[in-house]
Amino acid sequence: MKPAAPAAFEAEFVAGLKEMFEQHISFNRLLGLRITTLAPDRVAAHIDMRPELVGHFTYNRLHGGVISAGLDAMGGLAVMAAIGGKHMDETPAARLQRFARLGTIDLRIDYLRAAIGAQFSLQAQVLRLGSRVASTRMEFLGQQGELLATGAAAYIVS
């Protein structure tokens, strides 16, 4: 039997999570992370290349710290979406309050290719959402969809 498709989020929840992620988290705002997909089982976003995001000596390559921070943020967003999907019986406002204690406890990034381009895509999914810890997998993609970096992380959720 095919598993049921995850429920879609209400507009109020999507707007609240986008505002929290894109505007209220200062580092995400600095990176210019913009959510493109927000579902209980998958999230995606993009970053546009800007001069302040390149490495000091690399000029046209996105800095590795930007890639790492972006993937970490996306893993956290995937956990937020999974928690939001798990508690669809609550109001959107109540679900948005659940993210106050979310934090990274382990992060691994594998850099595969130089990040050169005008725009980059990031995506993430939760592999396991436990009562205290969530495990995620993330990808950082170039403009043509080429895999530039991957990440795996664990987040405290309680």
Describe this structure in words.
Residues 60-148 form the Thioesterase domain. InterPro entries: ACOT13, HotDog_dom_sf, PAAI_dom, Thioestr_dom. Belongs to the thioesterase PaaI family. The radius of gyration is 16 Å and the shape is globular. It is built from 4 helices and 6 strands. The protein has one domain (11-156): Thiol Ester Dehydrase, Chain A. The model has no long low-confidence stretch (mean pLDDT 90). The longest helix is centred in the middle third of the chain and has 23 residues, at 64-86. It starts with 10 loop residues before the first helix and ends with a strand. A 6-stranded antiparallel beta sheet has the order 1-2-4-5-6-3, with helices on one face. It is an alpha+beta fold. The protein has helices at 11-24, 26-31, 64-86, 92-96, and strands at residues 34-39, 42-48, 103-111, 119-129, 133-141, 147-156.
Topology:
Blueprint (H helix, E strand, L loop, with lengths): L10 H14 L1 H6 L2 E6 L2 E7 L15 H23 L5 H5 L6 E9 L7 E11 L3 E9 L5 E10 L2
Antiparallel strand pairs: 1-2, 2-4, 3-6, 4-5, 5-6
Summarize the structure.
This protein is α+β, with helices and mostly antiparallel strands and 158 residues long. It contains 4 helices and 6 strands, in the order ααββααββββ. It has one domain (11-156): Thiol Ester Dehydrase, Chain A.
